[in-house]
Amino acid sequence: MAVTLEQAQRVGYTCLKALLRFAFMVANNLVAIPSYVLYLIVLQPLRILDSKSFWYIEGVLFKWLLAMVASWGWWAGYTVVEWGDDVKAVSEDEAMVLVNHQATGDVCTLMMCLQDKGTVVRQMMWLMDHIFKYTNFGIVSLIHGDFFIRQGRTHRDQQLVLLKDHLEKYYRSRNRKWIVLFPEGGFLRKRRETSQAFAKKNNLPFLKHVTLPRLGATQVILKTLVAPQENGTPSSGDAVRKESKPKGLQWVIDTTIAYPKAEPIDIQTWILGYRQPTVTHVHYRIFPVKDVPTEPEALTNWLYQRFIEKEDLLTHFYETGAFPPPQGQTKAISREMTLSNLWLVAIQSFAFLSGGMWYCLFQYLYHCLF
Question: pLDDT tens-digit profile of 314-326?
Answer without folding.
Answer: 999 999 999 999 8
